Amino acid sequence: MALALAVTTAMGQNLNKQEAKSLQAFLTQTAAKGGNNAEALLMKGNDPALTPGVKVENGHIVEINWDKKELAGTLNLSNFPNLQKVSVNDNSLTTLILNNNPALTEINAARNLLTDVSFDNDPQLQVIRLNRNRLNEINLQGTPLLKTLNVASNFMATLDVSNAFNLQSLNCMSNRLQTLNLSGCTNLKNVYAGYNDLTSVEFAGLANLENLNLTNNKLQKFYVSGIPTLQTIFVSDNHMAEFAVNDCPALTDIYAPYNDLTAFSVNNCNNLSDVNVAWNDLSYLDLSNQNFLQRVNVANNQLITLDVSFCPMLTTLNLAGNSMLTDLRTEGDTLLHQVVGTWDTWE
Known about the structure:
Number of domains: 2
Low-confidence stretches: 1-13
Structural class: mainly beta
Largest sheet: 15 strands, mixed
Helix content: under 10%
Oligomer: single chain
Number of helices: 3
Number of strands: 26
Strand content: 25-35%
CATH class of the largest domain: Alpha Beta
Distance between the termini: 89 Å
């Protein structure tokens, strides 16, 4: 027993005093289901250095893992010089402060009750996951190396990630976004911004964009040009009347049903495999000479003319709900074997 006490005391003395004080301040706060956070963590004794889920090296905290512990309150871990990772996913925290942590690379605080977060002057921070919280805003100015940002399912009306040169993946779905600034995000590959209130998005300078999801917004027009890496576009359930994509040679999938499209065009996008523009107002559509096009869904439009000729890999075509269609062009479509909808002259 004496030996164990000596070891515990030595470890307690080994932890930086400022870090121990900050940790102790959090441990004494009320937990989500009563008691305090120390009790929620099943902590034995009162030595902060022995807190479950806390990794200490050379007298400094380097990692905290407190997922699903029913923790609550304000967690302030500022000025921890060696702290690298913080994971407090699925708790009831309301405030998270992580300022001035020069070694911090990753934060996971998803599924909390956060209304306030701060991570100023965290120059190595690369991954931030704050999805399913109650945030109205977020400031990313002190995170120059940020690669992954997930702020889905919050309450933000505006999100500015401009000049985040290293950002590769952004998930801001299911907010209240009216403004999304992506300018200068030259390495951005994935943008998931569906289920917001966006009326427009600027894509200039996004030379490495691969996947774009703007489902269920308030877009009226959609124009994209000259993005050589773009592969998928999801823009269903908007208010779009016009859709045009030019010079995107890697594009394979376009999903744009449930809009108000009267104009649709794709030019120099020669790797298309799937196009869905069902439930729109198109009267004319030209998808001819697409060597890799396999599936086309144009159901429930007002088509008079549909040209899918010389698409040698086309197998499936959905024409249902186009009662005015009088001109269907399928010449050269040698693999076409499934046509949904009435077409009297097709064999």
